[in-house]
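Exam revision sheet. Question 4 asks you to relate a sequence to its structure. Input first:
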Amino acid sequence: MTGCEAALAGGPEQSFTASLLGEIAHLLGQLAASGTGGAIDLRSLPLQAADREALERALGRGEVEARLTTAGGSEVFETTYPGVWWVRHRGADGRISSETIEVTLIPEILKTHADDLAGARGRLAEAIENRLFEFQAGEVE
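Answer key, structure tokens:
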């Protein structure tokens, strides 16, 4: 039995998890049909630690995972259901400051910002130019 099946087969204590799974399935259907997904802010819900753990077990962890090292750090992982992402941000004190389930092709936080892209192009062009100069000057082995 998968984690999702276990959550759906559980008793009343699993009803909150089952309700969230239904909402996630609805958002996943929207994403597949129209390309428009959505997000569920887990911090805005009256989740107990057991509820959060049950939801995480039900969704599981897929093959894609990313860690961001800015501020307090962030963790992003795709669940075993493609297009369903768990996004968790921590504050400087290490405590969870934001936690969402995002139903999308790729979470916004993982997309390169246009300003960063332009800066990267400039830095790479400069590095290539400097490296070519080093080659021409015979400074590179």
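Marking note for examiners. The mean pLDDT is 86.
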